[in-house]
Amino acid sequence: MPGTPDLKTGGSPTGSPDGPESSPLAHGLRQRHLSMIALGGVIGAGLFVGSGAGIAAAGPSIVLAYALSGLLVMLVMRMLGEMSAAHPASGSFSVHAERAIGPWAGFTSGWIFWTLLCVAVAVEALGAAAIMSGWFPGTPDWLWVAVFMAVFCGINMLSVRNFGEYEFWFAALKVAAIVLFLLLGAAAVLGLLPGTESPGAANLTGEGGFFPGGAEGLVAGLLASLFAYGGLETVTIAAAESHDPVRGVAKAVRTAMWRIAVFYVGSMLVIVTLIPWHDESVLSGPYAAVLDHLGIPAAAQIMNAVVLVALLSAMNANIYGASRMAYSLVRRGEGPAFLGKTTGGVPRRTVLASSAFGFFAVLLSFWWPDTVFTWLLNMVGAAVLVVWGFIAVSQLRTRRRLEREAPEKLVVRMWLFPVLTWVSLAAVAAVLLLMLREDATRIQLAFTAGLTLALAVAGLLRQRAAARVR
């Protein structure tokens, strides 16, 4: 049947397969790189800084909010892991959407994710520049942005192993920081840290109780927590350039549950147990607030260093992820053909294009911070939910095809299929409805819907044009 993919060979509907068996990309990543990319991928600046807004809105119930949003993320990663283990591809979910739904779906999900990553690079560069200009007064933010952009563009231009090594050590530093925080916090909660007394459950049950903001507070905390889980998708993109992509994806997905439980839910529990949720210092930085509460010298500067590492790590990973997604799209005929050349197994033109777009977004923040840059931020505000929706629909269709045509490829299986896949889709829809209720997120939803619709229409027109040519 025309347009139907061959699941055994991994061909794509467009006739341009995107997988490790056919891609000219280098396979320089090792298992330790993938493991640390997956491990560090869940520890970003959103956790260290952005979680403060969630705590201020939800109080102690932020623990439940992170658990619920983490559960949805685990289900999404399990679905993505199933497809990526069966068909490793540098385009990850975009390739799966194209195979399962059609070229327009791969086009839409791929380019909206590329836009999201490039805008994220700009935001991370601005955040890192702000920290550096604070340490070195008198130096302009634009100078630090230019330095960071040049450095990470250069790293990604050299080789995939180069990216892997840098990300390995960045992730190792983030993991060490969060583990040390959890150990210190747990000792303080138990009253084992010298000079501190155990607070017991006073901060959890007092100060308005576990749900001080009621259902509305929990919803606000849920929305704040959901978008802190960025970075997990990168490992499925990176796996296509590893020596053993199937094993790499399978291992990363299977360990996602305890990573989320320990790093996110565990640290939120430590924070709201040790200090009152409405403490003003929590909003500016909950981790620094806890360290200061425990009497750790220079707590704010320590956390600034950790946040800087998290921001630089995210920049590195997002430039990588954006360049590979763009390369995959171009290779499948869904982007400018001149960007499809590789040199030494590296798609340097898409690395340059992705970095350039990120830098252009930074310039927009300087030129029109309250208009154009804000519109750009709003356009990607709910983009991850669009991607998760495509992942769920793709997995529903791909799983049934795999069971019929290539069951041996089901190395990773979605739990309780198809029930939990439908639950995931319903959860994504419920979050979108919750965003529609909130004034702060309704604008983001409208802008993201506009971008998604524009990409979908463009993808459908391209798909029909290609069909007429054939």
UniProtKB/TrEMBL annotation:
<feature type="transmembrane region" description="Helical">
    <location>
        <begin position="351"/>
        <end position="369"/>
    </location>
</feature>
<feature type="transmembrane region" description="Helical">
    <location>
        <begin position="442"/>
        <end position="461"/>
    </location>
</feature>
<dbReference type="InterPro" id="IPR004840">
    <property type="entry name" value="Amino_acid_permease_CS"/>
</dbReference>
<feature type="transmembrane region" description="Helical">
    <location>
        <begin position="111"/>
        <end position="136"/>
    </location>
</feature>
<feature type="transmembrane region" description="Helical">
    <location>
        <begin position="218"/>
        <end position="240"/>
    </location>
</feature>
<feature type="transmembrane region" description="Helical">
    <location>
        <begin position="62"/>
        <end position="80"/>
    </location>
</feature>
<feature type="transmembrane region" description="Helical">
    <location>
        <begin position="261"/>
        <end position="278"/>
    </location>
</feature>
<keyword id="KW-0813">Transport</keyword>
<feature type="transmembrane region" description="Helical">
    <location>
        <begin position="142"/>
        <end position="160"/>
    </location>
</feature>
<feature type="region of interest" description="Disordered">
    <location>
        <begin position="1"/>
        <end position="26"/>
    </location>
</feature>
<dbReference type="Pfam" id="PF00324">
    <property type="entry name" value="AA_permease"/>
</dbReference>
<keyword id="KW-0472">Membrane</keyword>
<feature type="domain" description="Amino acid permease/ SLC12A">
    <location>
        <begin position="33"/>
        <end position="442"/>
    </location>
</feature>
<protein>
    <submittedName>
        <fullName>Amino acid permease</fullName>
    </submittedName>
</protein>
<keyword id="KW-0812">Transmembrane</keyword>
<keyword id="KW-0029">Amino-acid transport</keyword>
<feature type="transmembrane region" description="Helical">
    <location>
        <begin position="375"/>
        <end position="393"/>
    </location>
</feature>
<feature type="transmembrane region" description="Helical">
    <location>
        <begin position="34"/>
        <end position="56"/>
    </location>
</feature>
<feature type="compositionally biased region" description="Low complexity">
    <location>
        <begin position="10"/>
        <end position="24"/>
    </location>
</feature>
<keyword id="KW-1133">Transmembrane helix</keyword>
<feature type="transmembrane region" description="Helical">
    <location>
        <begin position="298"/>
        <end position="322"/>
    </location>
</feature>
<dbReference type="InterPro" id="IPR004841">
    <property type="entry name" value="AA-permease/SLC12A_dom"/>
</dbReference>
<feature type="transmembrane region" description="Helical">
    <location>
        <begin position="414"/>
        <end position="436"/>
    </location>
</feature>
<feature type="transmembrane region" description="Helical">
    <location>
        <begin position="172"/>
        <end position="193"/>
    </location>
</feature>
